[in-house]
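Ticket reopened. Same input as before:
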Amino acid sequence: MSASQTPPATAVPGDDLPTLLVKIFGKDRPGITAGLFDTLAAYSVDVVDIEQMVTRGRITLCALVTAPSPAEGSSGTSEGDLRATVHSWAESLNLQAEIISGRGDNRPRGTGRSHVTVLGHPLTAETAAAIAAAITATGGNIDRIFRLAKYPVTAVEFAVSGAATEALRSVLAPEAARLGVDVAVVAAGLQRRAQRLVVMDVDSTLIQDEVIELFAAHAGCEAEVAEVTAAAMRGELDFEQSLHARVELLGGLDASVVEAVRKEVRLTPGARTLVRTLKRLGYQVGVVSGGFTQVTDALQEELGLDFASANTLEIVDGKLTGRVTGDIVDRAGKARLLREFAQQAGVPLAQTVAIGDGANDLDMLNTAGLGVAFNAKPVVREAAHTAVNVPFLDTVLYLLGITREEVEAADTLVG
Ligand SMILES: [Mg+2]
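Engineering reply: fixed in the latest deploy. New output:
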């Protein structure tokens, strides 16, 4: 565009249009933003971009505006006047101002956009340095960083462009393991906001216990069952065979044990917050379990879950028979149920999230749009899209880009 042409009505300058970056830094107080733009308004400039943030009471305000046209009949330039006026306004408020001349808008962001979420407990400077360096090593550019949460972990999100999501994952996963922090890399875009179904495993995911071990304690065969469970979760045993073997050990138990076990179940910290927040956001939430409907039905009722599926312990004449009835929910069954729930919910698989800890969750985690290994065994952690290794289930919200402030604001609203 030549200088003689009329500037466009929209404030999107061509690369050759002079622009000014006005940066203000200092103690935050009411009226700074209004004051800056009031000052700029006298020069009839257009706003191209604004970024503002406040960190511990200090404001950083950046305004990218079109450069003012030289004043008619004036010996000086309007830009010179603008600079003097902004500096004088800033000094009167004890703020630092910097004005940088340039041309055009921000340079376009590179293709390939991702969100890199880091969960630290605590988040050390060493970690921040290593994550930033790893992002740079992939050719990615960090466009923005902000804090999602300070409780129960410090969660920060890096908006990254210029690198493929898979490439970022492959570089950041070993760094995260080395640093002992959780790093999730998800593709940016509408798909992330459209995630609408979350399906969780139950034992050692939604709840802290392995339900069959609670039953086993009542049957006096806890150690025997625990050993079979551990081997199955490590992927060393066929899940269905191990299920039948363990349930057989419960044969003859009085059915009243079911109620006792329900009372013993301990939800994972953050489980209620996760489910409540997801429901308020309009997500559908379900559970699939290699455990038992005798427990998952109660959880479904208590938490208001949309879907639940598990194995059913057979009870005859007030006693556990040592058998299960119906189709077995195993590794393949969990993935099949995720597909069924997604279909019933009307949500494409790409917009589903699955959370689990065991080898029998792997098919489900890899079928979902986002699979989260939650305090999982190494075999699961290594195969899943992302891993959370802090013992708080609500941290999954941060991977979805939901901030702690939003969680707490929703709680305040609803009461
Ligand atoms: Mg589990």
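Residues 201, 203-205, 356-358 surround magnesium ion (CB under 6 Å). The chain has three domains: 18-103, 113-187, 197-384. Please confirm and we'll close it.
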